[in-house]
């Protein structure tokens, strides 16, 4: 019985090991291609093990790193500002609707929640941002459209509802005003939820490409993901369109087309792929933080 | 997830309703009703002025970025011109829709959106459930490693997944075609042949979503009391019997709720998956195009704003009806899990 048991466990481990490798392998192909010599790529195709190892793609990218650095700068700025503002407004709104003694909490909750069920969709939003708010080519167009998610407000509300009303009432008794209660008592108590939501929001901003595709044309304001979109969409465009190549600061005559494209992907996507998994438990916690009823 | 969060919402609503009725003491009834109502509300607002102010930024934001676009849905019934604006453009009644539904476009993108979402839902649920049950058989220190590996694709944006797909599918140098040639087969023009795309999209979706969904069900299994398994072990049940007779039945409510919720969002396609993985290739539209990609192209590439708005209107309204229906069904099955 025991022996049979461990054999089946061994099979399970083998199964999950193979599965894990299969899931991770596709990443390795992109990295391998970025490290392969261009001539070898046209000769042998894309391989998991570079037949002719070369760092030239990275050298090209890092010789004129402006465009990647600028994209990193834009993405970081948008992520930091967006996350902080979003967290603050999410917490403020969630706190108000979490207060059972506030009589408009239900109507406010409905007002927020309804936007999750029904939306105007792409076209009206696009016209709002471009024609009424005039945010085309503004970094605000990257921050504002995803600033406040009803789902995050609900999660935060679920967390704040667990704070006993007595805490708030005793503070009021001591003469504290609502702002003071919110900033000095509620926010510190909500740190775990703020950390979880903050990470989810930052992740959303970091990986945002849709609004960038819609609203950003100015090369100086291109965030990382849009840089990736443009490079991917213009698979051959990069070599046939000298204007774009000039933007990238590349000499076309010996430009490593395929490997350079994959090198951009690695440089733009790699660092966060190393960092985010450390916070994996937060991603799961984000799902449950609101559901634990006290 | 959201349903749980809003279960808490219902609880709150309950308490506040009780408070309301307390405030509305029998004595108030003797006064003229309207006047006392306004006075009471005004007093309540005054004493909660700061609380109201705290919610103003959120309310204003939603007004501008969510409610104003709802008004903008009228564009679907107008011949939109940028110079005339949303309210100045001419009304054209149902013209935008007539054009849409007389071609086979509406049918194609509706079919694709719904069938893909159904396929994603069924296949991801089954696979994730299977993996979660198996993971539960292993010790926690090993499962963490496997979970991290399975979770990794979740951190990629669809754009980056597009690069990975391209590395495999690229016609001349891609890994798959080179492998096919090496094995003596003919290469396939992946970005021009629409037939294999349902499979490709489902595989890519599964690859990206499996880690996350597995974790949801794994967390569900963790929540099952150990007593059941203890009792089953004493009765001599095998591992397989425990999985099939205890784990799966106890997870059924979670599975049903998750499935019904995704039926509610059946009309919202995954733009990133359907735009970047087929690399927006025109040859593939018949099998990859969904409502969301169509709306985007109509707006940004074709520049037909009204047409795009009509499809968007159709999506918003049918989507809304589906959410209401899904919630109604959940409420029938188990009111505790309904969204509102």
Automatic annotation (TrEMBL), chain A:
List the InterPro entries.
Answer: MetI-like, MetI-like_sf
At the top level, the lineage of the source is: Bacteria
Every copy of the ABC transmembrane type-1 domain together lies at: 72-279
Q: Give the location in the cell.
A: Cell membrane
Q: Which GO terms describe its cellular component?
A: plasma membrane
Q: How does it sit in the membrane?
A: Multi-pass membrane protein
Transmembrane residue ranges: 12-35, 71-97, 109-133, 139-160, 181-206, 262-284
Q: Name one GO biological process term.
A: transmembrane transport
| Record's keyword terms, sorted | Cell membrane, Membrane, Transmembrane, Transmembrane helix, Transport
Q: Which PANTHER family match?
A: ABC TRANSPORTER PERMEASE PROTEIN MG189-RELATED-RELATED, POLYGALACTURONAN_RHAMNOGALACTURONAN TRANSPORT SYSTEM PERMEASE PROTEIN YTCP
In its UniProt entry, what is this protein called? Carbohydrate ABC transporter permease
Task: Give the originating organism.
Answer: Cohnella thailandensis
